[in-house]
Amino acid sequence: MDIALLGVGHLGEAVLAGLIDSGLPPAQIWATALPAERAARLADAYGVEVGTDNPSAVAEADVVIIAVPPVAVGPLLSAIGPSLAPEAVVVSLAAGVPLARLAERLPPGTTAVRAMTNIAARARRAATALAAAEGTDLTEIEDLFDRIGVTVIADESMMDLITAVAGSGPAFLYYLADSMTNAAVDGGMDPVDARVLIDQMLLGACLHLQDSDEPPAALLERIATPGGTTEAALASLDESNVDEAIRAAVAAAAERGGELPGA
Ligand SMILES: NC(=O)C1=CN([C@@H]2O[C@H](COP(=O)(O)OP(=O)(O)OC[C@H]3O[C@@H](n4cnc5c(N)ncnc54)[C@H](O)[C@@H]3O)[C@@H](O)[C@H]2O)C=CC1
Ligand SMILES: O=C(O)[C@@H]1CCC=N1
Prior knowledge:
Blueprint: E1 3-6, H1 10-21, E2 29-32, H2 36-46, E3 49-51, H3 54-58, E4 63-66, H4 70-80, E5 89-92, H5 99-105, E6 111-116, E7 126-132, H6 139-146, E8 149-153, H7 159-167, H8 169-186, H9 191-211, H10 216-223, H11 229-239, H12 242-259
Helix pairs in contact: 7-12, 8-9
Bound molecules: 1,4-dihydronicotinamide adenine dinucleotide and (2S)-3,4-dihydro-2H-pyrrole-2-carboxylic acid.
């Protein structure tokens, strides 16, 4: 399968790195990035063809992955439309750009897919949701995204909410990591030790959560020894309405997905 990856920025580079790490031959990937100096740097770093000419990059591609900002999706699709192979599948990673909008800009009959993934693609631990018109065979695209993590098929009506929890989601954890690290360092902990311990705590907790069939609330109770330190922390979080704040943050991200220029 030949893949074009257009607009390799933060997310695109994570996807590129993950795909190559998964064993996808670099010769099967044609990427684009701007400006030309960035394209050259990426080509050196990953050993793939990286140029700035989108129509040339898609000419041989079976799958075209769009990783440009939402506002740039429409013009990009119009530019590549005439060069797309007749059976090409176009997968947009852009937040908030509906399938209908993709279809409007593509040649009639082109298969369009929305994929919401995240920055953990680099570590091949992305959480990806795919949405497409009813009846679309997503097997090949699912296999492709399975190389860089876990993939689910979703209804398009869920994509803004999925963007909030899966696409933006890692930022919520980095926010927590940042706050905890600052608290540890402010309390006198060595910054290197704080980083090592907090990274490992997050990784271990997430692996345990993924391994367990129990809901997060049940795992949380097991840490909270009656009358102990965790209870004190949880009471403080509740007093600050952190649950409400997280729900509001998810809602704000989802709402923004519906408002993005390009949507
Ligand atoms: N950053 C993330 O963690 C996530 C991002 N997304 C989506 O991925 C897309 C990219 O986001 P980021 O990587 O954060 O943005 P970014 O700004 O880091 O990357 C976009 C890249 O596209 C390039 N670009 C723009 N127009 C181009 C064109 N016509 N041809 C070639 N390259 C072009 C830009 O130079 C830039 O390097 C967005 O649509 C965003 O909604 C989705 C999920 C997670
Ligand atoms: O912040 C954004 O708009 C993109 C989409 C999800 C994560 N980053």
